[in-house]
Amino acid sequence: GQYVVPHFRFDRSQVTVLLGVDPVADGPHALEAQRELAESRRLQHGKIGRLLAFEPLMSSAGSIADERYRVGPEALADIALSLVQLVSARAPQEYAWVGKKVTAYGPAGVEKKHHLRSGLLTELADELWDHRGKCLLVAGGPNATSSSGPALLNAVNLLNSMLENDGITVQVGTQAHQHAAGTPGGLQDLLGRMQNSQIEALVIVDLDLAYRLAPGLKFVEALKKVPFKLGMFTHRHATGKLCDIVMPNHHFLESWSDGEPKKGLFTMGQPTIQPLWDTREKEQSLLRLARMASS
């Protein structure tokens, strides 16, 4: 198969569940998610779309959720797998085998383990099943990079399929986003190589990984084993303090850009303001470094 980032149609969802992800703040398609999520929260036919968030840290989306539950990063996969068990019991016979694979994630045990209200997951599964084809579950972001990340993502994909969301609130094919080629497994591989002192130089661009990644990934410890760290950031943060050199980067409102967010859709962005400080485009900085290295 091909690794793709689906286009989530928040505007078509009447019940949206976020598992450790903040679609309105993270990623290059945050503006699109903001617009569609706002549409789902508009009163239509006497109803407003519901939003539930399970997350370790307060997020922009979590701050406007109808129900927000603070849980540790390790709880996200458990919650998703518990929902898989509950939804598979309501799904057609073709999904009967699924429930047998996740018997260790009974809702009562998961709720007790992660200090959730008794009966919450069963109620949520009922609500999702009643809105199949009109609901949406989303996971990803930094919380999907932990060791349980693949289980979390696979469980959410399976849930959306069982709930008949594919092609309605979850779109792939030409509608899939192409903003990133990296995967959670790729990040774990990089961290492993850093821990084993196999990376001699690392360039980090506009990512505060020391703050955003789960502590269990031990990013800070791994970064200390890299001899040379170059950071390109728009502002000071925890990761920048750990770099050997920091090159100030333009804010996105000061920058030129281009991309192909969806297959066949090409875009170009231009700056809206002049640079306020003595900064430079990250592409320009990289080109200058390349010239210096080749001279």
Q: Major sheet: size, sense and barrel closure?
A: 4 strands, parallel
Task: Indicate the structural class.
Answer: alpha/beta
Q: Bin the helical content.
A: 25-40%
The dominant shape is: globular
Average pLDDT across residues? Answer: 90
**What integer value in Å does the Rg equal?**
21 Å
Strand runs, count: 11
Q: What order do the helices and strands follow?
A: EEHEHEHHHHEHEHEHHEHEEEH
How does this model look, in words?
By secondary structure, this protein is α/β, with parallel strands linked by helices. It has helices spanning 30-40, 60-63, 73-88, 96-101, 107-113, 120-130, 149-162, 184-195, 209-212, 219-223, 238-241, 282-294, and strands spanning 7-8, 15-19, 50-55, 67-70, 135-139, 170-171, 201-205, 228-233, 245-248, 257-262, 265-269. The chain has a four-stranded parallel β-sheet with strand order 4-3-2-5. Strands 7-8-9 form a three-stranded parallel β-sheet, with no helix packed on it. The chain has a two-stranded antiparallel ribbon with strand order 1-6. The longest helix is centred in the N-terminal third of the chain and has 16 residues, at 73-88. It starts with 6 loop residues before the first strand and ends with a helix. The model has no long low-confidence stretch (mean pLDDT 90).
